[in-house]
Design brief:
Chain lengths: 114, 106
């Protein structure tokens, strides 16, 4: 079974620039998550999709972050404009049904904002 | 409010010694609790969940509702256990603790 794919693996940008991350979940998984993991902390949920609908985006900074999962499969997370404090690893995960089902994580995208 | 606390950022243990990674939680209701692990250069992955009541790689964790704890234990540490360990609380979403880095000394 292929795992969760993410790209790019690394990204360096200057503050106020925009950036986009892509995620391809495990085939058949209805639920997709984006997490932000700042150095020294655990993953923090940004947004959760069930198929192509948003289940939870309560911790997504909506003034600068956006995410979509148009066809219920792949997803993109965008930051525009980026701030220094956005430097983190962005993790994508998927699960078959959501809730407290086992989540399968991608390798993450390491973002550095200068 | 739901919260997961891992009091130790780093735990160093000699090979062959017992390991205990501490986790305390705050939750009103019956929680689902998990331990996730991230080995060097690998993805974050599920280690075990309390409802399974199973031992994975020699690790066990018992839910203690009285003490609101879910400590991860292993009787004899191995060098390959060195990793980052995250305790997590599951409800309609999963909340992660800050993690404990376990370093097994030779």
């Amino acid at each position: 079974e292929a795992g969760v794919a993410q790209s790019p693996r690394y990204k360096i940008i200057e503050k106020r620039q925009s950036v986009a991350f892509w995620c391809n979940p495990i085939s058949g998984h209805a639920t997709l998550y984006w997490y932000q993991q700042i150095l020294g902390q655990g993953p923090k949920l940004l947004i959760q999709f069930q198929n192509n609908g948003v289940v939870d985006d309560s911790q997504l900074p909506k003034d600068r972050f956006s995410a979509e999962r148009l066809k219920g499969v792949d997803s993109t997370l965008k930051i525009q404009p980026a701030k220094l404090e956005d430097s983190a690893v962005y993790l994508c995960a998927s699960s078959s049904r959501g809730g407290s089902e086992t989540q399968y994580f991608g390798p993450g995208t390491r973002l550095l904002v200068l | 409010a739901q919260r997961v606390t891992q009091p130790e950022k780093l735990l160093s243990v000699f090979k062959g010694a017992p390991v205990e990674l501490k986790c305390n939680y705050s939750y009103s209701g019956s929680p689902e609790l998990f331990w996730y692990v991230q080995y060097s250069r690998q993805r974050l992955q599920l280690l075990l969940r309390h409802i399974s009541r199973e031992s994975i790689k020699g690790f066990t964790a018992d839910l203690n509702k009285g003490e609101t704890s879910f400590h991860l234990k292993k009787p004899f540490a191995q060098e390959e256990d060195s990793a980052m360990y995250y305790c997590a609380l599951g409800d309609d979403k999963i909340i992660f603790g800050k993690g404990t880095r376990l370093h097994i000394l030779p």
